[in-house]
Amino acid sequence: MSEEDDIITYLVAQGADLAVPRSVRHYVYMPTKEAAGSVASELRNRGYATEVSPAALGSAWLVLACHDVVVSARGAAAVRRLMEALIKEHGCGEYDGWDAALHGHEVRPKPN
Q1: pLDDT at 111
Q2: Burial 56-91 (b: 16+ CB within 10 A, else e)
Q3: How high is the pLDDT of residue 103?
Q4: What residues form DSSP beta bridges with 100?
Q5: Which residues of the chain have pLDDT under 50?
Q6: What share of the chain is helix, strand, coil (3-state, %, to 5)?
Q7: For residue 112, what pLDDT is reported?
Q8: Is the pTM of this model over 0.85?
Q9: What does each C-alpha distance from 83 to 44, 92, 105, 109 come to in angstroms?
């Protein structure tokens, strides 16, 4: 079972409705601030909200990339390929996976 499958299995076990879009965060580590900024810029151009900050440990830089999406194994695998291609294009780094909000952006009727 892949990491993507593990996360999706967890979401379903917790009662998540996978038909509902939810906030998803992706973690990319790059060796320099400049490389992290380049990756973040490319991701912003693709619709992600990004933040660049020093990693909690070591000398790497974290690119936190967020978007709202309907979670699926196919979609998660496509994002992994995108992240790994951007890392390769901008030097070396690491895609450290993703997590997702348990509750999606469900539209609920307003109380009367």
Answers
A1: 45
A2: eeeebbbbbbbbebebeeeebeebbebbeebbeebe
A3: 81
A4: 24
A5: 106-112
A6: 35, 30, 35
A7: 39
A8: yes
A9: 13, 12, 24, 37
Could you tell me which residues are beta bridge partners of residue 23?
A: 68
**Whole-Å CA distances, 41 to 11, 12, 48, 88:** 30, 33, 9, 15
Calculate the dihedral angle through the C-alpha atoms of 63, 89, 45, 73, rounding to the nearest 10 degrees: -70
Q: Domains, the chain, ranges and CATH?
A: 3-12+21-100 (3.30.70.970)
Interior CA angle at 15 toward 11 and 18, to 5°?
60
Length of the chain: 112
CB-CB contact of 64 with 25 (8 Å)? yes
